[in-house]
Amino acid sequence: MSGDPAAVLLDLHQRISGCTVCPLARTRTHAVPGEGPHTARIMAVGEAPGEREDLTGRPFVGSAGQLLTRLLESVGLQRSDLYICNVLKCRPPGNRDPEPAEVDACAHFLDEQIALIRPDVILLLGRHAVARLLPGLPGISRLHGKRIVRGDRTYVPLYHPAAALYNAALLRTLEEDMRLVRGYLDEAEAERALAAAAAGAAEREAVAAAREQLTLF
Length: 217
Ligand code: SF4
Hints:
Elements lengths: L4 H13 L6 H4 L14 E5 L4 H6 L6 H12 L7 E5 L13 H18 L3 E5 L1 H7 L6 H4 L4 E3 L2 E6 L2 H4 L3 H48 L2
Parallel strand pairs: 1-2, 1-3, 3-5
Antiparallel strand pairs: 4-5
Helix pairs in contact: 1-5
The protein binds iron/sulfur cluster.
């Protein structure tokens, strides 16, 4: 992918906002492309916009979004640290489940977002996000809180915050899983620092070797 990443992301958001490829374009108020910095190290992927998201064009602005913000803050993260989006960019009428054909039609947008942002960790919020990005794996009740590596991507399935709004047991599970996420992020950060230090040492050695060669002539 070439060009200024911020401009590429903006262009992607504009293409999503103007998309009319599937029937959801006819019933939405606004498409909801996503929100957050292109430099985000964490990405959160939910299911689809709800009523408030549809009205505002922004992801996770309802009560589930407020809970997500509280959970992030409880482990020292800010919502603005994340890039947040959904599997589907337009609201299914009445918040019904996404249809497979709608998910297929919309899939390339999420793939483009992930390829552009290249986050250290992708939080999969709920079963639809898990089914889209980790197809064939067991249900979220067995996967939640686990770190799953596929290629160069790391995923952590979590219960959707909306499911924990009125379920104290699920909320406790989500809080515990969020602490695990914090640990995974700290490890990813430490690994990046080590890799940068190793690259710096290799560069210094190469420069020293080149200087030594020059002194021979
Ligand atoms: S849900 Fe996705 S594919 Fe369907 S109209 Fe919206 S952006 Fe386009």
